[in-house]
Amino acid sequence: MSDWIQSVDWASMWLSTGQTIYMTVISGVFTFLLGIILGLLLYLTAKDGLYEQPMIYKVVASFVNVFRSIPFIILIILLIPLTELILGTMIGSTAALPSIIIGAAPFYGRLVEIGLREVDKGVIEAAQAMGASRWQIVWKVLLPESLPSISSGMTVTLIALIGNTAMAGVIGAGGLGTIAYNEGFEAGNNVVTFVATIIILLIVFLIQYIGDRMTRRVDKR
Amino acid sequence: MRALSDVSLTIREGEIFGIIGYSGAGKSTLIRLINLLEKPTSGTIIIQDRMLTKLDERELREQRRSIGMIFQHFNLLWSRTVAGNIAFPLELTNLKKKQREARVSELIRLVGLEGRASAYPSQLSGGQKQRVGIARALANNPKVLLCDEATSALDPKTTDSILSLLSDINRKLGLTIVLITHEMNVIRKICDRVAVLDKGRIVEEGSVSEVFSHPVQKITKEFAGSLNGQQTLRFRDEGTIVFLAHSNESKLQENLSVLFGSDVLSVKVLGSACVQGAETGVTLALKGTASDISAALDRLRLSGTTVEVIRHHE
């Protein structure tokens, strides 16, 4: 047992855990904001939407479809120039953020759009009949009424996003994926791989648990 | 496709105006034209001397605040409590929080939902949900209330309680109510005047008793026939409502002519004659003093007429 514990460099294990959490939290926040904006844009500009705009809809929809289809490992490499432009570097946890966000936000945007579509048309009509402006409908009707979908969609997205943080090791992002690959696989230390897996699972379970609770709390249907 | 054509209606201030028709007749479109949820391809809509069809988007929003609307499926926000739903239209007008809260509790009392302020719609019955809908529609003191099949999703007993609430509000607040329905009893119970809508056109229009005691169009006759004498009628200001029946048709006619000849009573035929079991009957409204009416009814009973008082005059 003590051999087992000693075969892991715990300092670097905790450092990697910290990096994974850092990437998850920061890209999670941006994915959330960007996804809501994309979802609203798709919903509002669609045919028969509140701001029907066929051109904008087409542009946003193609952007979402393209970036949702590119495998993440390729997306990271494709976005290296953009990352350098924004952050001035292409190495490290922070450098992984743009590609993680651009990989996850379109996916989340679609989930938000689906949630918005589920909002009862009658309730929107009632708000219009009461003299609500379109922005008031967005803030006071659409977003509050789709909160359960926004919350459960975010849970699903965050878990997918953790998978991507592990892959970001290819550009030296660090995190539990990198340590599992470098020290676990390359150096043949299976215990490290095992421990990294357990930690990732714990993070995923925690997110799922919190997400489920939040979704249940906001769902008054 | 043309949902409505050649529709011209004048609705008087303070009345309850019903529009009846089968599904697909264009009722929903017609009521949505009044607050411009549907835009007409041609024609005008005027409410209290303001031409709604001429307003820009902002002015229209302003105007819509003085037109309340309730719906068949209530259309409440499930994410808000009863109080939150009623506060919604008040939030749109930037009313101060204190005034908003005062107004909300006033409205909760008006519709009889005391104690349910913090309940969510999913915890309410259909009738209670419609009461929330009514309170919400009245929040900004509208002049007009539009009712889109407001009782069609409710059971008969709840329908009655919602209808009497609407008729109370109409009297208390002097509110003009426009309602669409496919249910004849809704028209009979609370409407002053009615229009019959068929395939996008208004085929008959007038006071409820006029239209349904002398229906001209086939569709009006169908609606009139959907009520027999047994149903509870609640005409307003029509006097005491009675259903008279006799196994012998000519005897009934004889008795009726005596009744019509009375100096002290004014008699009005409300329903067309109908056969009930072995008897033929007719629904009448009697106006006069209580003692004159009961004396007349006693005489009728003595002559073998079945007398059923449907509603005493209040």
TrEMBL record, chain A:
Chain ranges passing through the membrane: 20-44, 56-80, 86-108, 156-179, 191-211
InterPro entries (alphabetical): AA_ABC_Transporter_Permease, MetI-like, MetI-like_sf
Keywords: Cell membrane, Membrane, Transmembrane, Transmembrane helix, Transport
Localization annotation: Cell membrane
One matching Pfam family: BPD_transp_1
ABC transmembrane type-1 domain: residues covered: 17-211
Main location class: membrane
Topology versus the membrane: Multi-pass membrane protein
UniProt superkingdom: Bacteria
PANTHER family, A to Z: ABC TRANSPORTER PERMEASE (PTHR30450), D-METHIONINE TRANSPORT SYSTEM PERMEASE PROTEIN METI-RELATED (PTHR30450:SF1)
Protein family membership: Belongs to the binding-protein-dependent transport system permease family.
Name of this protein: ABC transporter permease
